[in-house]
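W.,

You were right to be curious about this one. When I first looked at the sequence I had no strong expectations either way, so I just let the prediction run and decided to look at it fresh. Below is the sequence, 450 residues in total, followed by the output.
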Amino acid sequence: MNLFHMLRERAAQNRPVRIGQIGAGKFGTMFLAQCRLTTGMHLVGLADLNPARARERLEGVQWPKERIDAKSLGDALKTGKTHVTDNAMALIENPDIEVIIEVTGDPAVGIRHAMAAIDHGKHVVMVNVEGDALAGPLLAKRAKEKGVVYSMAWGDQPALICEHVDWARTCGFEVVAAGKGTRYNTHYHRSNPETVWDILDKYLTIKDRRHINPKMFNSFIDGTKSGIEMTAVCNATGLVPQSNGLAFPPSSRFELSEVCKPKSDGGTLEKAGVTEVVSSVTRDEKDIPHHLAMGTFVVITSESAYAQQCFGEYNMLQDKSGKYAALYRPTHMIGLELGLSVASAALRKEPTGTSLMFNSDVVATAKRNLKKGEILDGEGGFCVWGKQTPASASLKEGYLPLGLAQHVKLKGDIKEGERLKWADVEIDTTDFAYKFRREMEAAFGRPNVR
């Protein structure tokens, strides 16, 4: 627990961690709010397709106007101010910037930015979990070869879940399940950007919707984001998906060890060692008291009868048998906590979670009956949602990864609920993201279990 001490040392040496951030959406804005207040950090540059909007976001989180008027990156480095631009590559190519935060949310764009940053010797904090789910293992491999860090984003749920898993294993426990909570019902898979607020308003109060991308937030509702995030967790920890993906069983935080244990022991899981996401509502959409809609969890066991006895003595949340116990974190604060990843990458050269293998994939799945000639609109849109799928099944069946299910034309009709395949779409095989994904499949095509 010495990151803040290390940051203070850098500040005392007039050598703050120099950061370039790409993207100024909700997550990015939340980090901006705290970066300004963090000793030993300097946001040298902020890149966004709409620089005027980026400046508005900075001012909206109380950055003084005089601190965001640097005329260039060189000026920002000399004065301690921040330069706002629409040129992300300028940040990536600047030799004095140490850490690139990729927070665009576009998987193809994110892969390009991350790979360019790695090639330029930058640490990468990959907020863009969509890009990580598409090809994170290869990005992490390339980063390691270059001697830089490729990291998940602390504050986002995947990194927090990975920490739960690491804690459990380091203590000698067996991880039975790890995951998060959300609000889920079976019909939510049909949700689209026009209907998303009908569901979202029931549990998340957002006063200012100007910072909100309905398509991105719909991804949280329709099940896609859960599939993406649990895929990232599997590929970082060695946990595996269940054969049919996430089941979203209803559960309160106090029932986690009863619900998220194998069916053979009275739970809902296919087996131990998997990811799962629990719902904060019953299947008839009644709110569950003490739910975990914003939190994360791990369910553990031990072959030691004495350890199981201690679960009860120390108020772990046990199941009725006493064999299983749960630990949870009630919330996550996304961008407000991101400084931990930035500091860890720059000062410890250690990621807060990183992709190590290809155990899980996110497959484009039809939200409705789709017609030949339709153009897919990707994550959170009107056409497809992302279903967590074992990587071995995805490769065997030739399923289309969600991250490439955008701006591609259907070759034929697809029924609602059917997983799409590469063969179902017309795709540009010369595209960088396509080629990078295919290279990742070739390099990591054999799943691993830890």
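Here's what jumped out at me. The radius of gyration is 22 Å. And, maybe more interesting for your project: The mean pLDDT is 95.

Coffee later to discuss?

I.
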